[in-house]
């Protein structure tokens, strides 16, 4: 069952602060909730974690529960609790600082670029050094900006987050430059000697949608429960549930007694209705049947693995690129493992999170295979035809043009003289041979 809207406490404050131990690169999300009017009551606190945070990044939940928000594709922390009169409770969620490009990655990039540039010769060497200088300049900018906006104990991390977003854009340009050097190395017939970590601008975006008619999707039940929280009264409970963004109106196969619709502003589909005469403390469930738009990676895994196998065959036949062969073999092994992964069986927040994450991992593998494939399309050095020569000067260019025009003029003159010198009978024969018979 997918979670619906979540209740908040009487007042709820949440802020991201740098942990006192800045050396640990740890961020603390402080959540403060309280009851200000002097009356005990049960509340539910709920706060979304920042984008990009995954369960692996969380160091401590401080007693809170962790769930996945299907609509925002982010995780959130929550807890049901009872607050006494004017009671305040504070929770501190500790998260790894994932908003920084590690110095180890920057160092490994420098090392990798140096190794690649060292494999180049001649004109390629000059091109490689130019790209290497651009990469070094960009990496230096990343280092300086991160140092200026480093985590400091007790401060909000707004500037730190903005710096990270800017540096991610710079890193993309770095990786595209690395991709150019890698291709230069492969063009020269040299083995790059490691994974192809560079990116290629304009490379096709992996397709996630299953190919074929809508019938290729299996049906799955989204159970929606309406609970009467009153301990004494029978009530009719209004129901409205927004469906995940992947679901369109045509994907709702059976509303389970509810009505379906689409929010014009959000572009999200929903089901709504009323659970009539629900007894005190009881609940009523509606089984909404929808197309499963998440557990669809099986055929795509097969397709990506097939493509990787074909590319591996091409690399093997060409020879001399053992590191690329090793990369493709490791990707095929990873796809084999992914195919055997067992996710949750029933539709829930965890179900959607599992298959969305699997799709994202499959995207990365697909991109790596396409990256290798694009490198193989470049023309190896050994296949070049001709030799490199300096381009002609403007004077030489015009001289060549005059020679060609003179040659054409002489040929035209000879043709004219030949035609003019023919007898009348010859001209007549030529004319009738070029016409149509009767």
Q: What is shown here, in short?
A:
The chain is of the alpha+beta class and 438 residues long. The chain has 8 helices and 13 strands.
Strand percentage: 15-25%
What is the terminal separation in angstroms? 86 Å
Architecture per CATH nomenclature, i.e. the level-2 architecture of the domain at 11-96: Sandwich
Query: What is the mean predicted local confidence, pLDDT?
Result: 82
SS content category: alpha+beta
| Tally of individual helices | 8
Given the C-alpha coordinates, what overall shape results? Answer: globular
Task: Kindly state the percentage of residues in helix.
Answer: 40-55%
The CATH top-level class label of the domain at 11-96: Mainly Beta
Gyration radius, in Å? 34 Å
Unreliable spans are 4-9, 19-24, 380-395, 422-438
H/E series, N to C?
A: EEEEEEEHHHEEEEEEHHHHH
Describe the structure.
It is a single chain. Helix content is 41%, strand content 22%. It has helices spanning 103-117, 122-148, 158-187, 297-318, 322-339, 349-376, 394-420, 424-434, and strands at 11-18, 26-34, 41-48, 58-60, 65-69, 74-83, 88-96, 219-227, 235-242, 252-254, 259-262, 269-278, 283-291. The protein has a four-stranded antiparallel beta sheet with strand order 1-2-7-4, with no helix packed on it. Strands 3-6-5 form a three-stranded antiparallel beta sheet. The protein has a three-stranded antiparallel beta sheet with strand order 8-13-10, with no helix packed on it.
Helices and strands in order, then pairings?
Blueprint: E1 11-18, E2 26-34, E3 41-48, E4 58-60, E5 65-69, E6 74-83, E7 88-96, H1 103-117, H2 122-148, H3 158-187, E8 219-227, E9 235-242, E10 252-254, E11 259-262, E12 269-278, E13 283-291, H4 297-318, H5 322-339, H6 349-376, H7 394-420, H8 424-434
Antiparallel strand pairs: 1-2, 2-7, 3-6, 4-7, 5-6, 8-13, 9-12, 10-13, 11-12
Helix pairs in contact: 1-2, 2-3, 4-5, 4-6, 5-6
